[in-house]
Structures are given as structure tokens and as C-alpha cells.
Amino acid sequence: MAGYHFYESSGKEVGDYFLDSIMSDIDSLALFAGIHRKSSGFHVALSRRFPFAIYYKIESEVVRVRRVLDCRRDPDWIVKALKRVQ
Q1: What pTM was estimated for this model as a whole?
Q2: N or C: which end of the chain has fewer CB within 10 A?
Q3: Of 69, 39, 78, whose CA–CA distance to 51 is shortest?
Q4: How many domains would you assign to the chain?
Q5: Which of 40, 43, 41 is nearest to 63 (CA)?
Q6: 3-state DSSP call for residue 53?
Q7: pLDDT, tens digit, for every residue of 9-41?
């Protein structure tokens, strides 16, 4: 994941903290899935600690995370990235 490599190069163990934080945000979907706004056909949960968004769908009562993307990217790039996983 590009986010991990970016933060890992920022300092000791920051990449691991990034992954732990994103996984915690994903785990929270077990309780909060479906309450997030929708964009491009996906629910969008924002990470609590990093400028990343978790794009997911609910399919047959199962939460499927489709992408974790950097919110600082060009919005057109994000839309194209989401179209590739639909």
C-alpha cells in the first residue's frame, strides 16, 4: 500500500501505526457500516487519524472494502480508481 510506504519513510514505525489505524477504522465498520455518505456508488468512511478514505459496499449483509485511498489525491483520479473496482 502506497500509504504505508509513504509513512514508513517519514519515520520509525510510522508505517505500522498507519496500517494499525486504518485496520482499526475498517474494524469499526462492523458496528457503523452504512451510516457513511455515499460517493460514486460506495459508502465512504474517513480515517480518524490519517487523510485517507475507506470506500466500501454492503453486499448481502457483508461489508466489502473495495479501496482505501488518499483524500489528498486529485478527485478525478479517485473517481477513476473507483471505477476500476466496480
Answers
A1: 0.92
A2: C
A3: 69
A4: 1
A5: 43
A6: strand
A7: 988 799 999 999 999 999 999 999 999 999 999
In the chain, the amino acid numbered 8 is: E
The rounded distance, in Å, linking the Cα atoms of 69 and 51 is: 9
φ/ψ (deg, to 5) at 43: -75, 150
Query: Residue 77 is part of which domain span?
Result: 2-83
Q: Tell me which amino acid residue 44 is.
A: V
**Separation between Cα atoms, residue 77 and residue 62, nearest integer Å:** 27
| Grid cell listed for 39 | 460517493
- Residue 63: pLDDT over 80: yes
Q: 50: domain CATH number?
A: 3.30.2310
Task: Report which DSSP code applies to 47.
Answer: P
- pLDDT class for 86, splitting at 50, 70, 90? confident
Helical residues (DSSP H) of the chain, grouped into ranges:
2-8, 14-27, 29-32, 75-83
